[in-house]
């Protein structure tokens, strides 16, 4: 199964898409987009941060697509300017090029590198990973002590990657506990920052990379 590249579109970009996909009038599409704006505004990163992350995602995907099939096995998840790269490539040179391409996008604060180098890069997000994602998302959404909109979840081969902004250490631990309690989870990688973490206010530094633990 081809690797699914998760990304969000900006609110403005979604307006024509909503109208075309659903047959909505422009007013109806605008109402749907308005709800998205309200959701983004409620996030810790705000409307501006959400739009910036959407732009970063799209630019990374565009740069990967320009390279053709070489990077079709890599996925990029962006939250608060932090880019999580997952998937697989055929050799170390391609790995390095993927990191350089992602890091060259304006606004990237850091790269979290979880790309695997393998001669046969046929990795992907399968049905079980999709199930884990859905179950975990549901669990944190229905937890009254967790602001679920502040988290992004990426699951690959049973490994749960958590990105986001926690209101407190207690909230962060609750999200991790939900992940541990989800069926078919083989491991958890916690990339969540507290909302008071000074790294959130640091200028973009794409050369900063977080390797495997």
From TrEMBL:
Signal peptide: 1-29
UniProtKB keywords: Signal
Keyword Ion transport on entry: no
Record domain BON: where: 52-119, 128-196
Keyword Amino-acid biosynthesis assigned: no
PANTHER family: BON DOMAIN-CONTAINING PROTEIN
UniProt name for this protein: BON domain-containing protein
Source species of the chain: Caenispirillum salinarum AK4
């Amino acid at each position: 199964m081809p690797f699914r590249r998760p990304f969000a579109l900006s609110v403005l970009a979604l307006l024509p898409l909503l109208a075309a996909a659903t047959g909505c009038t422009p007013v109806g599409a605008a109402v749907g987009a308005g709800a998205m704006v309200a959701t983004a505004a409620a996030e810790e990163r705000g409307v501006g941060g959400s739009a910036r992350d959407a732009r970063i995602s799209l630019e990374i995907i565009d740069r990967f697509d320009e390279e053709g099939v070489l990077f079709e096995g890599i996925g990029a998840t962006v939250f608060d300017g932090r880019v999580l790269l997952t998937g697989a490539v055929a050799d170390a040179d391609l790995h390095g090029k993927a990191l350089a391409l992602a890091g060259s996008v304006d606004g990237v604060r850091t790269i979290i590198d979880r790309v695997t180098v393998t001669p046969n890069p046929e990795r992907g997000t399968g049905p079980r990973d999709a199930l884990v994602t859905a179950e975990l998302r549901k669990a944190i959404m229905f937890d009254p002590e967790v602001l679920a909109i502040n988290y992004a979840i990426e699951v690959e081969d049973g490994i749960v990657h958590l990105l986001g902004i926690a209101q407190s250490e207690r909230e962060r631990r609750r999200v991790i506990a939900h992940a541990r309690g989800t069926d078919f989870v083989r491991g958890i990688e916690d990339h969540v920052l507290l909302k008071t973490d000074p790294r959130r206010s640091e200028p973009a530094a794409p050369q900063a990379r977080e390797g495997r633990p």
